[in-house]
Every structure is written in C-alpha cells, then in structure tokens.
Amino acid sequence: MSVLIVGSTALDSIKTPKAENPRLLGGSASYAAVAASFFGPVKLVGVVGKDFPKRYIQLYKRHRIDLRGLQMLPGKTFHWSGEYEANMNNRRTLKTELGVFEKFTPTLPAAYQATPFVLLANIAPALQHHVLDQMRRPRFVVADTMDLWLKVALPDLLRLLKKRLDGFVLNDSEAQQLTGEGNVFVALKEIHRLGPKYVVVKQGSHGSILSGPHGLFLCPAYPLVKVVDPTGAGDSFVGGMMGYLAAAKGPVDGHLRRAMIYGSVIASFCCEGFGVQRTTRVSRAQIDGRVKELERLTRF
Ligand code: AMP
After folding, report:
1. Ligand 1 pocket, CB under 6 A
2. In testing the pocket of ligand 1, which one of 91, 94, 145, 146 has its CB within 8 Å of the most ligand atoms?
3. What digits encode the pLDDT tens for the residues 223-273?
4. H or E element: which one contains 216?
5. Which phi and psi (to 5°) does residue 45 adopt?
6. What is the per-residue pLDDT across 145-160, written as a single tens digit (0 to 9) for each?
7. According to the 3-state scheme, what is the secondary structure of 34-55?
8. Residue 182: phi, psi to the nearest 5?
9. Which protein residue has the closest C-alpha to ligand 1 atom 22?
C-alpha cells in the first residue's frame, strides 16, 4: 500500500563545525519521502519555486516518488538555514525564508485521495487539516510537528490531535512544551488525553518511545560513532516507520515496533551525511543489516 506524505520541501543551508553546505535538498517531506521509498510507493504533496534545482526532481524520481502533488509556483523555494554547535546536538536556526510556502494550499490530485497511509510531516497544522479534509477514509494517519506550531498554532494542533489522528510523533522537548511535564512517561499519558491512540516521543541519539494500547516500547537509536549532520533525522525516522507500516500486511498494531526500528536505522544513515546524501546511497540490504545488528544489541 502507498503512503501520502505532506510537509515542507525545502532548500537547506547547513553549517557544522567541520563544513558548510548551501542549498541542499531538505524539508520534512523530502526526508520522510526518501525514507519511506525503501518500502513501497510514496505520494508527495508540497510546493517548490522556480529556483528548485532539476537534479532534486531527478532525485525524487530515482526514488520512484509520485510528484503529481508537488506544485511548482513562481517565486522562491522555502529556504531554511541552521548551524550546529560542536556537540552536533544543539542547533540554531539562522534564517527561515518562506518563499512560495507563504501562499501554499495543498491540493490533492484525485489519484491521491484514497491513499491508505497518511503522514502529515512537519508543516503548519492548518495545512495538515487541509490535506485530511480532502482524504477519503485513510486507514492510518500520523502527524509530526515542531516547537514553532506549539507556539503560534496551538489551537489548530489541538484540534488535529483531538479526533483526526491515529498517531502523533514529537520530540522530547516538544512533549515537555506541550504538556508542561518534564517526565516523558507522564507527558505521554497527558498527550493520549489530547486524543491520539499512539504517541511516539523521539529522543535523538537516545532513541524513541512508543506508547499505545499495549503499553510502552523502547526503541533504541543505532550507535553511531560519527555524526556528520543530524538534520532531518526525525523526519527520516517517521518516514521510514510509515513506509514500513504501509508495506506490512495485516493490522498496524502488530508491526509498529519493527516499523520504529526501521525508522531508527534510516535516521542513523541520515545522520552520516549532509542532507539526504547518505540516505539516497543506502541499499535495502544495508538497512536490513543494521536492523539485525540492533536486534542483537538489544536481545536478552
Ligand atoms: P529536523 O532536523 O527533523 O528538525 O528537520 C529539519 C527540516 O525541517 C529541514 O529540512 C527544514 O527545511 C525543515 N524546516 C525548518 N523549519 C521549518 C518550518 N517552519 N516548517 C516546515 N519545515 C521546516
């Protein structure tokens, strides 16, 4: 089955203590779509400007990503730039230039409207609503978010959480920001009260936690000795997870844990290169290899 992914499609300029890379392919939807593409068909919804390099369109195509929902409008592509501190964890946003994003209304092609799996990757919650308004009875809907929306669009986000999602994914600092609760296990309970059946809290290099009707699952991060650029790791995680779920047969419940492990492994590859440079060169066999390693590392 296929997965529909809406989110930002961007050009990212990323600075680390070791290197600087301007105008890489970025955006939450780009990372998530590349990650999900390892498992099955992906339908992308987003917007780019006329300055969007052709080689990035080719890159999407090499991953067999359906681009009928990618609008190209006059104007500039969304541009984000950020700088990492020496620890490669703390990041400062230097600039966010919205460009064509400012007037973006995601309109779904008819062929997208019955897609069973929907990933509302990080984007304004009003746009996430707009996509769901056009869908016909999706089977499993997951949303991601960021600190900005908790600050400037909380009512929209709460409305999304209340009835429209099966799963909600956020990172630990966002969980604290949303609930005012520093203990992640208490925060998970509070977030369930806001609506979603499944909640996943991402903890960067410490892995992630799933909470659902069958209790908790602690998903490890793959142990990396060298992180080149962690941008998009969270988006790759959730993209990989949704891609795996869409490809699996039978009820989602039975596959969620393994889906998170796959997401975690693809996120680890993402961190080993700038932008999607490493992820796009990885094979399914290499992904499966790291999944097996994680299995060995956590079995007792
Ligand atoms: P992450 O490292 O998971 O926080 O994701 C980084 C990606 O988020 C980058 O590729 C950015 O282009 C994208 N991004 C940054 N700010 C925003 C925003 N306000 N809305 C949507 N996407 C954004």
Report:
1. 8, 10, 12, 26-28, 80, 96, 122-123, 148, 231-232, 234-235
2. 146
3. 999 999 999 999 999 999 999 999 999 999 999 999 999 999 999 999 999
4. strand 215-219
5. -125, 125
6. 999 999 999 999 999 9
7. HHHCCCCCEEEEEEEECCCCHH
8. -80, -25
9. 8
d(CA 121, CA 137): 19
Place of tokens 């000795």: 225
- Nearest Cα residue to 169 out of 196, 151, 189: 196
pTM: 0.97
Tokens of 54: 């052709």
Distance (angstroms) between ligand 1 centre and the Cα of 297 equals 31
Separation of CA 282 and ligand 1 centre (Å)? 22
**Contact in structure between 8 and 101 (CB atoms under 8 Å):** yes
| Residue 118 · residue 239 · CB < 8 Å | no
Which residues touch 83 (CB under 8 Å, ≥6 apart)? 14, 15, 16, 91, 92, 94
Question: Which pair of tokens denotes residue 46?
Answer: 């987003």
Residue with CA closest to ligand 1 atom 13: 27
Find the 145 Cα to ligand 1 centroid distance in Å.
Answer: 10
Tokens of 282: 């990885």
